[in-house]
Specification:
The complex is a heterodimer.
Chain A: E1 4-10, E2 13-24, E3 29-33, H1 38-53, E4 61-67, H2 79-89, E5 99-101, E6 104-105, E7 111-112, H3 117-127, E8 131-133, H4 138-141, E9 149-151, H5 155-163, H6 194-206, E10 210-214, H7 220-226, H8 236-249, E11 261-264, H9 270-274, E12 275-276, E13 281-282, H10 284-287, E14 292-295, H11 303-315, E15 317-322, E16 325-330, E17 334-339, H12 358-368, H13 371-374, E18 378-382, H14 387-393, H15 401-419, H16 432-438, H17 445-455, H18 460-476, H19 484-491
Parallel strand pairs in A: 1-5, 3-4, 5-8, 8-9, 10-17, 10-18, 11-14, 14-17
Antiparallel strand pairs in A: 1-2, 2-4, 6-7, 12-13, 15-16
Chain B: H1 3-12, H2 19-24, H3 29-34, H4 37-43, H5 47-59, H6 61-72, E1 74-78, E2 97-102, E3 110-114, H7 121-136, E4 140-143, H8 149-159, E5 164-167, H9 181-190, E6 192-195, H10 207-218, E7 221-224, H11 232-242, E8 246-249, H12 257-267, E9 271-272, H13 276-283, H14 302-309, E10 313-314, H15 315-322, H16 326-338, E11 342-344, E12 349-352
Parallel strand pairs in B: 3-4, 3-7, 4-5, 5-6, 7-8, 8-9
Antiparallel strand pairs in B: 1-2, 2-6, 10-12, 11-12
Helix pairs in contact in B: 1-6, 7-8, 7-13, 8-9, 10-11
The chains are: A alpha/beta, B alpha/beta.
């Protein structure tokens, strides 16, 4: 293996690229081969200028080969390995042990941040190689434990390190542990809506998808935003997964522990949501991995867009296939949807009459119902409270988000303990085969469930959904077995009472 | 089919025609169909009507229509003929022909349940309950087959396996509104679809008010569930009062526009329906004991009491009334729902189930 390695990204995976350099006599010229894209081709100007500013003057005919030759190379992250390869070939630095280099060069030799640092660090760990990268990318790369990481601010210090003149210290700064995420808005600032708040708590605890249905002004969007404040922090493993996707896109964020929260507008394209394009980029659903994907005005989304969400919601991953290849991205999201009960928004509102014609309602209902709703465990009506009711609730303070978050965290831990051996993180992920065997019920639950299933006309899928939610409710209440009370509460969030059934 | 019947069938195709005209005319219907222009002018037929009658005669339309009705299994009821409901004679403009698709006669007596298409969930529920109750008291449920109150009333009657009749504003072979295709199929099995319009007559706005007079005339009693001031149900109710039919009204909230018209009828002298069972009790006193008051249901809890004090309550209000957490309130509400003691009414709001001692039906339909 050549000593100087770079990487190029294929989805969220880093592929090692060997840098081969040949310098022969002749007029000065640099050519780059090995399917470079425009950014890689233009790298020769940046590389030449950066080396020159460090006193290394290139002469003669220079050929750079990026192997494997048939894999397209994308982006500016190959600047640094090309520069190091040239410096080594021209004798300016000794050829040492193999290492992975990553970074974009400025003309004066400074290193600029780049994407793919986490993927490169994973590659470095697999191959036991040291990793050199720009300091801006060092914190995210350091999420991958057991890799020797060097953060070089510029080419000069890197060359000095390779020559052994001024060795760089391995990057070992601890990540800044941030405190509790600010709850904006806090649950206790929202008036009323106790049922919806409780449903959010259950959603956060069991990672259940949730649908909020209510008239304009009832507070759906505010409730959805408040979910952020009660989600449990990311675990180390989850944090790495989310950073991997983000660093692939070059999204500049600090590797914190707050869960991603992505809002998608209904005009978004399928590619923006699911990923794809010529370079097979991850979409919003992958950026929201281990976090929240919020679809406001759910009924306005195109049907095919929602259909495209079905498979990732089921599998937790999304495979993007195009002519240029196929890539699998993680996509385990908590889907939050909000919509009006009818096109005018006031169906079932106590104050405002609904102005929708019956056939308009029928069409709206058909648009809403569909396979995607089957994958939403919690259906929550958000009634608009009348002024009298609001006055009546004046002075009653709900639980603040921080307290709810503690309960959620405890419930999550209970789930990790129960399902950890199965490789699951939350109750929402329980596969069908485990629903009937893995969820332990107290003795009187089964007859009650059978009776309610008959009275409330629950389908088979509906029963599993209720059982999963009941398991989360039991976790929140600290019950080891699912009791009738837990089951009753879970029944309150089933399909009834949403747009499809009201009126 | 006699000549007279064939003539009535053909004349019925002309929408301006009604059986009342026959009384005024010196000649029978068959002579009108066979007559010439001079006769028609003498009788005062408009040029358009003359043209139509001439065309129907030329095409032999009546024979073809009769064959179509036979193929469909629809029975034809002629003015003055067998099976024609005598109650329609009370009308000023009774239809000359009725198409009955299904069982005829439906029931010894029929009560009509009418109301707006855009009713509240409450209205829909009450209409359904009434349909059930009447059916159980062996009274036929008559309505217009429209969305909202009408549909719920039919569905309620069918649920209790009773007889029901829908008087349509289209031909009996069409399903309008299309959402009610299934409902109409079920009505045909246990009851009948009625119409004065020839087969395949499409829905037009003016045809529905016209059919309302049939509902008013055919019914023994008429119950208005929810109706705004300007609505077909109010027209029907006024007509029923003029015809001397008993009119009952389900009292609604006074600040809701869907109840304005029906509440105003109370002022006009309609009977207020304050207990669901009243209707059935008045009709069939021996059945009254079947339905007990609320207290007979042994299940009580603070939450149930709070629910029974008034309807459509949000979870927040209930939680503060009984001093329980929202989670527990939801759990308890679900339990009551599964037991048939409470139900979701508006989105996010709950009401106690009025107790009639019967098994409760599922979701109301629109």
């Amino acid at each position: 293996m050549r000593p100087v390695l770079g990487v190029t990204l294929k989805g969220i995976e880093a592929v090692p690229i060997e840098i081969e350099v040949e310098i022969t006599g002749g007029l000065f010229a640099i050519s780059v081969v090995g399917l470079p894209d425009t950014a890689v081709k233009e790298a020769r100007e940046r590389v030449r200028a950066a080396l020159r500013s460090n006193g290394i003057l290139l002469r003669g005919r220079i050929a750079l080969n990026l192997a494997p030759a048939d894999l397209p190379k994308v982006g500016s992250l190959l600047d640094l390995p090309m520069a190091v390869g040239l410096a080594a070939e021209s004798g300016a630095v000794p050829v040492g042990k193999p290492a992975i280099f990553l970074g974009e060069l400025a003309m004066d030799g400074r290193l600029r941040s780049t994407k793919g640092a986490v993927a490169a660090a994973l590659l470095a760990r697999r191959n036991g190689l040291p990793l050199y990268l720009p300091p801006q990318n060092a914190p995210e790369a350091s999420l991958v434990k057991g890799v020797e990481i060097y953060a070089a601010p510029d080419l000069a210090s890197l060359l000095a390190h390779l020559k052994g003149e001024r060795p760089l210290p391995p990057f070992a700064e601890p990540l800044p542990e941030e405190g509790e995420p600010p709850a904006e808005p806090d649950l206790c600032d929202i008036k009323g809506q106790a049922a919806a708040k409780r449903a959010l708590e259950i959603a956060a605890a069991g990672h259940h998808n949730i649908l909020l249905v209510g008239s304009p002004g009832s507070g759906k969007t505010m409730l959805a935003r408040a979910l952020r404040g009660i989600l449990p922090p990311l675990t180390d493993e989850e944090r790495l997964e989310t950073m991997l996707v983000r660093s692939t896109l070059g999204v500049r964020t600090n590797p914190g522990r707050s869960r991603p929260y992505r809002v998608v507008h209904h005009t978004a394209s399928t590619i923006a949501l699911c990923g794809g394009g010529a370079s097979l980029k991850p979409g919003e659903i992958s950026l929201a991995h281990r976090g929240v994907l919020f679809l406001d005005e759910f009924a306005e989304f195109h049907r095919d867009l929602l259909e495209a969400l079905r498979q990732p919601l089921e599998d937790g991953t999304i495979t993007v296939s195009r002519a240029s290849g196929s890539v699998t991205y993680p996509a385990r999201v908590l889907l939050v949807c909000a919509c009006n009960p009818c096109p005018c928004g006031y169906l079932g509102d106590p104050q405002e009459p609904c102005r929708c014609a019956p056939h308009v309602l029928e069409r709206y209902r058909n648009r809403l119902s569909g396979p995607i709703l089957d994958r939403i465990d919690l259906h929550v009506p958000v009634p608009r409270l009348t002024p009298e009711e609001l006055v009546c609730l004046e002075g009653r303070q709900g639980q603040p988000s921080a307290e709810v978050r503690k309960d959620v965290l405890a419930a999550r831990q209970a789930q990790e303990e129960r399902w950890g051996a199965e490789g699951l993180h939350s109750n929402a992920e329980i596969p069908e085969r485990l629903v009937r065997t893995g969820i332990r019920l107290s003795r009187d639950v089964r007859p009650f469930l059978a009776q309610s299933a008959r009275n409330l006309r629950l389908s088979g899928r509906g029963i599993s959904r209720v059982l999963k939610v009941a398991r989360t409710v039991a976790d929140l209440r600290g019950n080891d077995l699912v009791t009738v009370e837990d089951l009753c509460e879970a029944l309150a969030y089933r399909g009834g009472g949403t747009a499809g059934d009201v009126a | 089919m006699t000549l007279r019947e064939e003539a009535l069938l053909a004349l019925n195709r002309w929408e301006g025609f009604h059986a009342g005209m026959l009384e005024d005319w010196p000649v029978g219907p068959e002579e009108i169909l066979e007559g010439d222009e001079s006769l028609w002018v003498r009788l005062g037929l408009s040029p358009k009507a003359q043209e139509m009658v001439a065309r129907l005669r030329r095409e032999g339309w009546a024979t073809a229509e009769r064959e179509r009705a036979e193929r469909l299994g629809a029975r034809l009821l002629f003015w003055g003929g067998d099976g024609y409901p005598p109650r329609l004679a009370d009308l000023e403009r009774p239809p000359a022909v009725l198409y009955a698709r299904g069982k005829w006669p439906v029931a010894a007596r029929m009560d009509a349940i009418v109301g707006t298409r855009r009713c509240s969930p409450y209205g829909s529920r009450i209409a359904r309950e009434l349909g059930c109750l009447l059916a159980e008291a062996s009274i036929g449920v008559l309505s217009g087959g429209a969305l909202g109150v009408d549909g719920a009333a039919h569905a309620g009657a069918l649920e209790a396996e009773g007889a029901t009749a829908a008087v349509l504003g289209t031909g009996v072979d069409l399903a309008y509104p299309p959402q009610h295709e299934d409902l109409f199929a079920r009505i045909r099995e246990r009851g009948t679809l009625l119409s004065e319009y020839p087969l395949s007559t499409a829905s037009r706005p003016w045809r529905f008010p016209r059919r309302n007079r049939l509902i008013a005339a055919l019914a023994d009693r008429l119950v208005v569930v929810e109706a705004p001031v300007k609505s077909g149900a109010i027209v029907t109710a006024k007509l029923a009062m003029e015809l001397g039919r008993e009119v009952w009204v389900v009292p609604g909230r006074i600040d809701e526009w869907v109840c304005k018209g029906s509440n105003a009828l109370l002022w006009d002298g309609a009977h207020p329906l304050v207990e669901l069972e009243d209707l059935a009790r008045v009709a069939a006193p021996e059945q009254a004991t079947l339905y007990g008051p609320w207290a007979e249901k042994g299940d009580t809890s603070p939450l149930l009491d709070a629910l029974r004090s008034f309807g459509d309550q949000a979870v927040d209000i209930l939680a503060s009334a009984v001093k329980m957490s929202a989670a527990d309130v939801l759990a308890e509400l679900s339990r009551l729902e599964a037991l048939g003691l409470a139900r979701r009414t508006l989105p996010g709001r709950w009401s106690a189930e009025p107790s009639t001692g019967r098994k409760k039906a599922g979701h109301p339909i629109l």
